[in-house]
Write a structure and sequence with these properties.
alpha+beta, PUA domain-like, Beta-clip-like, 2 domains, four-stranded mixed β-sheet, 10 helices, 26 strands
Length: 680
Amino acid sequence: MGSLVPFQDLNLLPDPPMSATVTPKIEPKLEPFDEPARTHVASRRHHHPPQQRPQPLQAPGLPDPAAPPPEFLLSSPSTQLTPSPDGGGDHLFSEFHRVSALFRSAFARRCRRGGGGGGGGDVDVLDPKTRAIVPVKNEEAQLAPFEASPSGGGGRRHQLQPRSSELVRVANLGDDDKRYFREEVRTARLIYDSLRVFYMSHEEGLDGRMRRGDLAAASMMRGCGLWVNRDKRIVGPLPGVEIGDVFFYRMELCVVGLHGQPQAGIDYLTASQSSNGEPIATSVIVSGGYEDDEDAGDVIIYTGHGGQDKLNKQCNHQKLEGGNLAMERSMHYGIEVRVIRGIRYGGGATPKIYVYDGLYRILECWFDVGRSGFGVYKYKLVRLEGQPEMGSAIMRFAQTLRTRPLTVRPRGYLSLDMSARKECMPVFLFNDIDSDSTPLHYEYLARTAFPPYLMLQNANGSGCECVLSCGSNCSCASRNGGEFAYDHNGLLMRGKPIIFECGPFCKCPPTCRNRVTQKGLSSKLEIFRSKETNWGVRTLELIQAGAFICEYAGVVLTRDQAQIFSMSGDPLVYPGRFTAKWTKWGDLSKVFPDYARPAYPSIAPLDFAMDVSKMRNVACYISHSSTSNVMVQYVLYDHNNVSFPHIMLFAMENIPPLRELSLDYGAADEWTGKPPLLCN
């Protein structure tokens, strides 16, 4: 069982020096939501020679920046992490008491001794109650939400619980703990994505104003107490968040607690909240918002905040206050920070995405003259060793892999297109482990093959009469309960027992929003040899939550045919056994108490099998997992028999490049007692 451990009283360490602060003013390092990306070219970067680089902020008694950080972990039996049965945030961590009076009295003695928090007599204490060096406004006011209605309208503003001011580190998590917190974060992200897609389909609120789905979703979840990792302010690794996780929206970082600022680049515990009156930085976002930033991957020269005008141009000197001071204090105490990179990603739903790249140590801090001629604070961040590969590096590698696979992998490819051009995108086959080439022995089947009589029954079918585009009066929409299943970006809005798409008998064009799954693969996929799962499937592109991936294709057999085939031992897939994960996608019951799960159109339990012994597609190699990132959604478009739908696969979460796809195959096979891992 993991433990929640408070930081040691920072005042008990040697008195650190403090630089004088001038007129207190907090100017967050803003990272605009849709900020244009700035390209950092290595050849154009300016580096100070060793003999000319300004000296870092150092003084006698300051710990060696290259040395390991001090051990701030005080293990205590009262700090055990105990997962609650219902997964509620209020019970996420067991409570423990801190000796805040000791912190205050220790800092008060230092202030009386030197007139400030650093013991040097050059810092004025402006708040006698909290001993704060820099007064700050309540940052939570930026996120005060409205009680939004289901239709997207605003409502009454209400008071929220302030963010925790207690610094803790989560340590010693076991495998069960990691799975528990991972599921907590995944559930929060699932609700966020479902709510965001819902709001995007109702962009115009009751007040007639256009709403941003990402902001409205985060505001609603916060009002309902559905944000996670907020009852304690966690430094270091965040439970449930893995290196390489990708976020399309800044507000989602706040929802999971990875970065608590909706727009500022530095997240920190303010001086007025800190027990010892000194701010501490916990995470930063590196996205090229400042012209003096330099990003070399494992080493970052990060520019502090302040001194910019409305056009993000440096127009004044920066000051050692707020986030700048917090970064310097984190360097002094050896506290690492989480680094999230904001990078441009072409073809995505947003112009910029955010990738969590792990923990960095702040080794140097100095005041320098920036490119614009104004003084800026710079911080040298170095990535800690022993961590998984950076998500941003994997994304760059995958981009090269999609276009020039043989350049980066000269060996291991068995095929650069398993589908033989039957798919709209190539399907790679890669094996660098052994000489097995089993997938090449099967004929690739791009679409499910239904019984001929089933298709003949629908030879004279009917469709909608829409000409230019399908609207609210579309007959196919009425079959779906009066609404379309997808938004204008092709994302699934909420799962249904079955979805009716426009088909070959409809008059709408191929670009119709109600033809999402008929267009084939939406991303480049790769079948690869794995030591853990034998064969698996991973994506070479970033897949957004709710996006269509591919069809699970095979030859459909009736119940009687399936019984005969099962006697010969041929591998069969039973679509009725797939776990109904579609019920979770779009489930807003935790947000709207009167939410009702879609029950129309309804279908009877499926009673057919799919033969993949001779013909199959890429989906047949997806591995089984009870916590899968892919879900099954039944879809009809080329015939009207609800007993034989297409098995379509959608993403349940944001899936980064080169991350393996997983599917919950559901009930165990009645003969072997194991999930039907047909190809594994």
